[in-house]
Automatic annotation (TrEMBL):
This is Uncharacterized protein. Residues 1-22 are annotated as: Disordered. GO terms for biological process: acetyl-CoA biosynthetic process from pantothenate; coenzyme A biosynthetic process. One of its GO terms (molecular function) is phosphopantothenate--cysteine ligase activity.
Length: 397
């Protein structure tokens, strides 16, 4: 690892951040994080920053429209639960209104909380609202875990919306995490936009789709080509690449000796491992977890600098959850050496963890729904992090 950053990267950082006002919530988030970290430094607890969900790219300063992506925050919210199970305190930096640890079991349209409830019959027609009997055990378990995390201040929820807010938050949180040293882990699962509109090219007001009388010669109508005959305007959006700040995180913002894990998402199986490896080489952090959009719930690849370099983690066929968007036929396609699929034998990483095998958080009910791949990923990361901490604490000979 180079010990310092090239000047150009510091310049890129100040060019970017000086161009935007800090997010309104940042000061409050910093205060909450400072207190959270102080508490956990004192008890020598490991702290993981989990980033989760997609970022928006506003098209207007007073934002009506924005570019977004598919991420619902499932990976981040699920992983946070398994980190808590493993004894970590979790800073959950998430896209506002995306899935949250624990409440994810009862939110959004697929798991609408109302479907879990019932009204107990009563002569007064005002019977108490109760959890339906078939969900009692599952919900009790989730509720207990949620309350334990809350009561013991183990989970800090911090929302963001835009890509700029995300970057401001990431920088501030990483700096605040410095006292944690090797006990800090970064788990960057958010789907951060690669493109954005720089502030100096962004429209102030809602971009108009039809002609508006020009008042004081000052109405912005977006970047558009010649007006078609319909009277509606064509909008051409011109996006710049978002500066890559992972190297700033690795060499500047994050605590020395902390562990940094990033994710790489692709749709083309033939480039996934290559892209993950390139990212690892470029930023010299510790691990890139590669996943395909179509198989992300059932397989991921760990790409590390040390041998074996590429290690696949798969949920056995019989234990895979059903996924509407997933394509099971694509499992194995991104692996450099061809996969011999023999049913349950495909799990290259054995399910050594009994909690994982029984479905982890959510227990028996979760096992019925299939194993969550995060129940295999997180224990593996915890092992890697333990080794790094042990190495960091070893006296120099
Ligand atoms: O939020 P989700 O569970 O639907 O998806 C998770 C994911 C695919 C966004 C995540 O695993 C990931 O790969 N994040 C990084 C994406 C990237 O910037 O390449």
């Amino acid at each position: 690892m180079p010990s310092s950053l090239p000047d150009s990267s510091a310049e890129e950082e100040s060019n970017y951040f000086n161009n935007y006002p800090p997010p309104k919530a940042l000061k409050n988030h910093e205060a909450l994080t400072r207190a959270f970290i102080e508490r956990h430094v004192e008890s020598n607890r490991r702290v993981v920053l989990v980033t989760s969900g997609g970022t928006t790219v506003p098209l207007e300063n007073q934002t009506v429209r924005f570019v977004d992506n598919f991420s619902a925050g499932t990976r981040g919210a699920t992983s946070a639960e398994y980190f808590l199970e493993a004894g970590y305190a979790v800073i959950f930096l998430h896209r506002q209104f995306s899935l949250l640890p624990y409440s994810r079991h009862y939110s959004h349209s697929t798991n609408c909380f109302l479907d879990f409830m019932d009204e107990r019959p009563s002569p007064s027609d005002h019977g108490p609202i109760v959890v339906r009997s078939e969900y009692q055990d599952e919900m009790r378990e989730v509720l207990r875990k949620y309350r334990y995390a809350k009561q013991n201040n183990l989970l800090l929820l911090l929302p963001f919306t835009t890509v700029t807010e995300y970057l401001f938050e990431l920088r501030a949180l990483a700096n605040l995490m410095r006292p944690l040293g090797a006990n800090a882990l970064f788990y960057l699962a958010a789907a951060v936009s690669d493109f954005f509109i720089p502030r100096d090219r962004m429209a102030e007001h809602k971009i108009q789709s039809s002609e508006v009388p020009v008042i004081d010669g000052d109405v912005y109508t977006g970047l558009h080509e010649d007006e078609p005959h319909s009277g509606s305007k064509k909008l051409v959006v011109d996006l710049d690449p978002v500066p890559k700040f992972l190297h700033r995180l690795v060499y500047g913002w994050a605590p020395e000796k902390s562990m940094i894990v990033s994710f790489k998402l692709e749709t083309d199986p033939s480039i996934l491992v290559y892209k993950a490896r390139t990212s690892l080489q470029r930023y010299s952090h510790h691990l890139v977890i590669g996943n395909l959009l179509s198989t992300r719930k059932w397989e991921v690849v760990f790409v590390t600098p040390d041998p074996p370099g590429e290690r696949w983690i798969r949920v056995p066929k019989s234990k895979r959850s059903k996924s509407i968007s997933g394509v099971e036929d694509q499992v194995g396609l991104a692996e450099s050496k061809p996969l011999v699929d023999s049913g349950d034998e495909v799990t290259q990483l054995q399910l050594g963890d009994t909690r994982a095998a029984s479905g982890g958080v959510g227990g028996a009910a979760q096992a019925r729904k299939g194993i969550e791949i995060e129940s295999i990923i997180i224990p593996e990361l915890v092992k890697m992090h333990s080794e790094m901490i042990e190495k960091a604490n070893r006296p120099r000979s």
